[in-house]
């Protein structure tokens, strides 16, 4: 069972990491557009549309990744003090009552929205000859399906925690740098170098 959970976590992580490269591309695109507009005096009319689509795609595809890493914001003023079983019970209730219906609605509405856009080969109307919108709109149902799949994995994790009394393991990921731990590591390295000399 744990292998299945890790597999879905890996899929969500790989997709999220792949789409995170859009931020780098977006940075270069914005830099080029500013340079082209103010230095070369040749702005690109399609650049703004493309920037919005790239940011939207990166944002949408990060949902399942963030859920896999337990990184979504929650009001844990009290939640963090609860025992794991109570946390799992609350999470399970919220996943069933709010998350699943909301994400199913996102998938359904996103599919309809993308299908209509694809049927007419919709293009942006912000500029003349704007870029096509239908590839971007197809990201919505795809992101919803990934989020729904990851949500089912989280429900299984809640059930396992209710049964065992502790949260099951998650795949390791890049962790934020803890400044105090970093300082302690640097001091430890300095101390070991001083002893060796």
TrEMBL record:
**Topology term for the membrane:** Multi-pass membrane protein
One Pfam family from the record: DctQ
Transmembrane portions of the chain = 21-40, 46-68, 89-114, 134-153
Name the UniProt record assigns to this protein: TRAP transporter small permease protein
Can you state the subunit structure given in the record? The complex comprises the extracytoplasmic solute receptor protein and the two transmembrane proteins.
Q: Family per UniProt?
A: Belongs to the TRAP transporter small permease family.
According to its UniProt entry, what is the function of this protein?
A: Part of the tripartite ATP-independent periplasmic (TRAP) transport system.
Query: What are the record keywords, sorted?
Result: Cell inner membrane, Cell membrane, Membrane, Transmembrane, Transmembrane helix, Transport
The primary site where this protein sits is: membrane
Subcellular localization, as worded in the UniProt entry? Cell inner membrane
Q: Which InterPro entries match?
A: DctQ, TRAP_DctQ
Positions of the Tripartite ATP-independent periplasmic transporters DctQ component domain: 27-159
